[in-house]
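Inverse folding, one chain.
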């Protein structure tokens, strides 16, 4: 009798915990959710082959993604959703990008260890941590001081202290650290900021969502060829929060 009561109590407690908003997933559930997330990303990337130009992630990008705990970059009440393949709110009207899009952008940048990379839009710090895990020297700029501060704490706590961050309008890049092997813009703009093009090395790669803030944008890939000319390719439709600032 007592045993059965214990089971009933246990089940009820389990159900209650599962339904409580804001509780993190238990470890086995989190592992399963993580596994399902990255399997979903792999599947979607294989389906997008024709548009994005590759059908699978390189081992380096896959290892980096699998190694960075996305749940640590979202506010506590979003933790239980951290391994779902969608953007999540991080406060101040901003979002952490969808894992699929982080994966595609990271792959397109073709990071080699030691590359210097500029990120416009630190947000949660998640994308910066993935780039750091790929061995890049990361310079990331965020315009909202509170987000920048929180990202700084998270990056330090998770061993990504090497990521350079600062509060500024990223439209102007980071002239003191330029030029860059790669540039990633994680907020939507209706044009490619000229200062960023100027700060892209010969042989460098940029990914940027271009288009109206009121509709979906196009993820655009830009490479500066060895002869200095720019080669541009539209990758796929995306939805990002808008670039802000007084530029
Ligand atoms: N890369 C982030 C997602 C960022 S969302 C992550 O991994 O979590 C886009 C971010 O760009 C927001 O935090 C927003 O505040 C920031 N942003 C918007 N306009 C900006 C600007 N002009 N300069 C710097 N950051 C900007």
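Residues assigned per position:
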């Amino acid at each position: 009798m007592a045993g059965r009561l214990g089971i009933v109590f246990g089940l009820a407690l389990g159900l209650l915990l599962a339904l409580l908003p804001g509780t993190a997933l238990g470890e086995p559930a989190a592992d399963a959710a993580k596994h399902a997330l990255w399997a979903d990303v792999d599947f979607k990337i294989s389906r997008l082959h024709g548009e994005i130009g590759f059908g699978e992630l390189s081992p380096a990008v896959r290892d980096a993604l699998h190694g960075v705990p996305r749940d640590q970059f979202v506010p506590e009440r979003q933790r239980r959703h951290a391994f779902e393949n969608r953007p999540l709110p991080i406060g101040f009207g901003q979002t952490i990008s969808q894992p699929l899009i982080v994966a595609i952008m990271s792959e397109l940048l073709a990071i080699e260890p030691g590359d210097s990379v500029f990120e416009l839009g630190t947000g949660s710090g998640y994308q910066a941590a993935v780039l750091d895990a790929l061995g890049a020297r990361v310079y990331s700029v965020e315009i909202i001081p509170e987000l920048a501060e929180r990202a700084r704490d998270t990056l330090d706590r998770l061993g990504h202290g090497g990521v350079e961050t600062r509060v500024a309008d990223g439209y102007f890049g980071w002239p003191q650290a330029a030029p860059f092997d790669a540039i990633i813009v994680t907020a939507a703009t209706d044009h490619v900021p000229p200062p960023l093009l100027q700060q892209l090395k010969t042989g460098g790669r940029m990914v940027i969502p271009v288009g109206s803030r009121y509709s979906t944008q196009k993820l655009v890939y830009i490479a500066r060829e060895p002869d200095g000319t720019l080669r541009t390719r539209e990758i796929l439709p995306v939805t990002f929060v808008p670039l802000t600032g007084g530029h």
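Residues 94-97, 120-121, 123-124, 126-127, 141-144, 147, 169-171, 186-187, 241, 243-245 surround S-adenosyl-L-homocysteine (CB under 6 Å). DSSP finds eight helices and nine strands in the chain.
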